[in-house]
Amino acid sequence: MNIENTKAQMRKGVLEFCILSILKEKDAYTSEILDTLKNAKMLVVEGTVYPLLTRLKNDGLLSYRWEESTSGPPRKYYGLTDEGKEFLKELSITWTELSDAVNVITSQNSQS
């Protein structure tokens, strides 16, 4: 079994939640989102994030706007829609429940 593949699948599973959480506070463009993920040690490549942002937009969870940049071409800023905010609330509840359950299970097993 390849541990790197399993770790990548775990990261992929929470990536959507992380991106929505990043956009909870303020709109951001893709480079900012990637930097935030990298600073948190969430190893992600651009080729994974762009399709995910498009899917979240198509699902009505994100909106975007173009903004002129002083250092290059215009930037596409993403933000949460009202539906995206509600979706994030639900994911947050689910994450807390899941995280608590995993912590209970893994701490029980480590005490055995």
TrEMBL record:
* Every Transcription regulator PadR N-terminal domain range: 19-90
Give the Pfam families listed for this entry.
PadR
Indicate the segments annotated as coiled coil, or none if absent: none
InterPro entries listed in its UniProt record: Metal_resp_DNA-bind_regulator, Tscrpt_reg_PadR_N, WH-like_DNA-bd_sf, WH_DNA-bd_sf
Specify the superkingdom.
Answer: Bacteria
Entries under PANTHER family matching the protein: PADR-FAMILY TRANSCRIPTIONAL REGULATOR, TRANSCRIPTIONAL REGULATOR RV3488
Protein name stated in the entry: PadR family transcriptional regulator
Organism of this sequence: Flavobacterium beibuense F44-8
